[in-house]
């Protein structure tokens, strides 16, 4: 598959996710993003999932008009929680082969660990980054206007405000 076809598929997937959660609360969108990231990280490496899902998380937050920080933290947490399959992380594969574990051993122990990590990550994310902060999407990570132009004070991207 050529890189342009892969990029088009990724763009279609991100547009589908954004359309799917459009009109829902940011909290529901955050949970959906976490679940999608958690499922993907069980099938791919955590670094790959983080690289693929991060731009989708930023676009999703911008489309909802909220700060992307909680969405990025959710991606970070979900991409790091790969306990339910032996293929989610490198050390899982080593243990799987060397200790003669079965696939269902990982599912039986790893799935509850994933759910605990999701609950703790969600509660910590809510305490640190409340979703009630609204930021204008036109000023969030809008780098297209600054590409190819010299940096000036008028081309700066406004940082999101956070009420902590």
Secondary-structure element pattern, one letter each:
HHHHHH
Give start-end ranges of low-pLDDT stretches. 132-164
Mean pLDDT: 75
The number of distinct β-strands equals 0
* Largest beta-sheet details: none
Helices, strands, pairings?
Blueprint (H helix, E strand, L loop, with lengths): L2 H19 L4 H18 L2 H19 L4 H12 L9 H9 L4 H26 L36
Helix pairs in contact: 1-3, 2-3, 2-4, 3-4, 4-6
Can you walk through the features of this model?
There is one protein chain. 63% of the residues lie in helices and 0% in strands. It is built from six helices and no strands. The chain is an all-alpha fold and 164 residues long. Helix 3 packs antiparallel against helix 4 (69-80) and helix 4 runs antiparallel to helix 6. The protein has helices spanning 3-21, 26-43, 46-64, 69-80, 90-98, 103-128. The longest helix has 26 residues, at 103-128.
